Amino acid sequence: MKNDDLRLFFALGCPPELAEAIATWRSHLHLPGRPVATANLHLTLAFLGQLPRARVAELQGLGGVVHAPVFDLHLDRLGRHRNGLLYLAPSHTPEALLELVEQLNTSLSSAAIQLESRPFRAHLSLLRHCPTQPIDANPSFDWPVTRFSLFASEQNTRGTHYRPLHTWPLLCDEQDGGFSAD
Length: 182
Ligand code: ATP
Ligand code: MG
Prior knowledge:
There is one protein chain. By secondary structure, the protein is α+β, with helices and mostly antiparallel strands. Helices cover 20% and strands 36% of the residues. The strands form 3 sheets. A 4-stranded antiparallel beta sheet has the order 3-1-9-10, with helices on one face. The protein has a 4-stranded antiparallel beta sheet with strand order 2-7-6-5, with no helix packed on it. 19% of the residues are buried. The structure holds adenosine-5'-triphosphate (ATP) and magnesium ion. The site of adenosine-5'-triphosphate (ATP) has 8 residues, from strand 1 and strand 3.
């Protein structure tokens, strides 16, 4: 990675209280593996990889054209990839999350930014190199999603750290053009 490059991704940063609740629940599972740091819990929307630092302003513009509504995410499924990554996921992916990802992808493609070709699968990584998946963990976490961010993934002495570079609010119901009678 060149000195003036940043490792960038758009994601939903897990609110601190929810992150603490998930980390506490995770610790009670007593699973072997490398836990993702509580402060790093997130759900990736679009991974950009290495890009020159000078492109951050342009990315801020591209994130700013996204106009997607707030939504509730219910994390109620525990899954494990073949590579040992244990993750939380919604058993039903909200339409608004898919819309947010689609708008981001469209905006980024307009600037010819190369994106992951695999289909989007909403997940929040919990533990790496985990050899087993408990069958009776029954997670249930509610996440009111109100914003998304552009992060730089950086290495420091304590490992990987995600630095938020910019955060955008999602649209509240009133801003969404919706009308609710009392
Ligand atoms: P580390 O790799 O240091 O153990 P990490 O995987 O959390 O930690 P990054 O590799 O910088 O940190 O990744 C940041 C986010 O982007 C993570 O959610 C990761 O799963 C995702 N990501 C990384 N590489 C890719 C990729 N090639 N395609 C899609 N998403 C990716
Ligand atoms: Mg990685």
